[in-house]
Write a structure and sequence with these properties.
By secondary structure, this protein is an alpha+beta fold. The chain has helices at about 20-30, 55-70, 80-90, 150-155, 155-160, 170-180, and strands at about 5-10, 35-40, 45-50, 75-80, 105-110, 130-135, 135-140, 165-170. Helix 3 (about 80-90) packs across helix 6.
Length: about 180
């Protein structure tokens, strides 16, 4: 039985570096034997089906294939449809009442220990807020990510050292849930 997944590529097609054209990404995924392949936007979102049940195995294979194809490393997170839907459903902020640019999910490769963020004075960033979820971090930034001081603070090395992380705005989060729905 096949499972539907989303591959979330980190740091591609930004500022002219690490260019990964979406048609080539689809070709790389097809070369790995995946089916039902589709991409969303240019920022590294791909949906596919696979018989493999281990998302970490899929991510490692995709990272290797991308390195071989493009000649540079690309961190990838692979998450199944059920996980993506659960993250959306567990959102601690009123997503339906917010603009997509105000709410973000940062997907990470492992559970986040709240101790990583213990030194952060959350009240100093209000009305911006963050909450930890299941291998993700939710960020409410009412003025958008580009103006978020909290996003900058959360991205400091002491908070993200050793973690593979990639963020998506709520519009993309919702679209990935829709695209992976069987």
């Amino acid at each position: 039985m096949t499972t539907t997944y989303a591959a979330l590529l980190r740091g591609i097609n930004v500022g002219g570096s690490k260019r990964v054209p979406m048609p080539e990404l689809r070709d790389v995924l097809a070369g790995l034997g995946h089916t039902g392949i589709a991409t969303h936007l240019q920022s590294g979102n791909a949906v596919f089906r696979s018989d493999e049940k281990d998302a970490d195995v899929l991510a490692a294979a995709l990272e290797q294939a991308l390195r071989e194809h493009f000649g540079f490393a690309v961190d990838c997170l692979v998450r199944d449809a059920a996980y993506l839907a659960a993250v959306a459903d567990a959102c601690p902020f009123p997503a339906a009442e917010l603009e997509g640019k105000q709410l973000h999910v940062t997907y990470v490769d492992r559970p986040l220990d709240p101790e990583r963020f213990a030194d952060l004075d959350a009240e100093a960033f209000l009305p911006e807020e963050f909450r930890l979820g299941d291998r993700c971090l939710y960020l409410y930034a009412p003025d958008g990510l580009g103006r978020s001081k909290l996003a900058v603070a959360l991205g400091r090395p002491r908070h993200v050292k050793g973690i593979v992380a990639t963020s998506r705005n709520w519009n993309t989060v919702a679209k990935l849930v829709e695209l992976t729905r069987d």
